[in-house]
Backbone:
C-alpha cells in the first residue's frame, strides 16, 4: 500500500512493488497549441511577444521588467526604416534601470577586445591592441627567428 506525506511545498509518495505492477490509469491530456504559456518561442503565432519564453532569461520580470518590456515591444513593433530607431528613449530608460541594479545585471566581462558597452571601439588601432598579423604581434606557433639572427 502506498503512502503520501507533505513536506512543505513537496509531496512525497512512497509506492510498493505491487503498486508498480498495476497498469497506470493516468490519462494523457493533449497539449493545447493555443496555450500562450506553452513554449512556442519568442513570438507567438498571433505575432505577440511571448514574455514567458525562457530565451528572455527572466528579463521581463524583476526590477527592470517594465523598462525591458517597453523597449523590446517598441523594437518588435517598430515600422521605421532602421528598425528600432524610434525606441532610443525606451532603451535609454532600460539601460539606466539596469545600471541601478549592478548586482542583478552585471556588465559583461567578456566584451570584445576587453571593452565594456560604454567604451566604443576606436577607429584607429592603438599600440595596446595592434591589428592581427602586424609585426608587433608575432605568431606564437612559429619560432622566433629575429633573436637567433642577431647572435
Residues:
Amino acid at each position: 500500500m502506498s503512502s503520501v506525506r507533505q513536506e512543505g511545498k513537496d509531496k512525497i509518495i512512497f509506492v510498493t512493488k505491487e503498486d508498480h505492477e498495476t497498469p497506470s490509469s493516468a490519462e494523457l491530456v493533449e497539449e493545447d497549441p493555443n496555450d500562450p504559456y506553452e513554449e512556442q518561442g519568442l513570438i507567438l503565432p498571433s505575432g505577440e511577444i511571448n514574455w514567458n519564453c525562457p530565451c528572455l532569461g527572466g528579463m521581463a520580470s524583476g526590477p527592470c521588467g517594465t523598462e525591458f518590456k517597453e523597449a523590446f515591444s517598441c523594437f518588435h513593433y517598430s515600422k521605421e526604416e532602421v528598425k528600432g530607431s524610434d525606441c532610443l528613449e525606451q532603451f535609454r530608460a532600460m539601460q539606466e534601470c539596469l545600471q541601478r541594479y549592478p548586482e542583478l545585471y552585471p556588465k559583461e566581462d567578456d566584451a570584445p577586445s576587453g571593452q565594456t558597452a560604454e567604451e566604443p571601439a576606436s577607429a584607429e588601432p592603438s599600440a595596446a591592441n595592434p591589428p592581427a598579423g602586424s609585426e608587433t604581434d608575432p605568431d606564437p606557433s612559429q619560432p622566433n627567428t629575429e633573436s637567433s639572427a642577431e647572435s
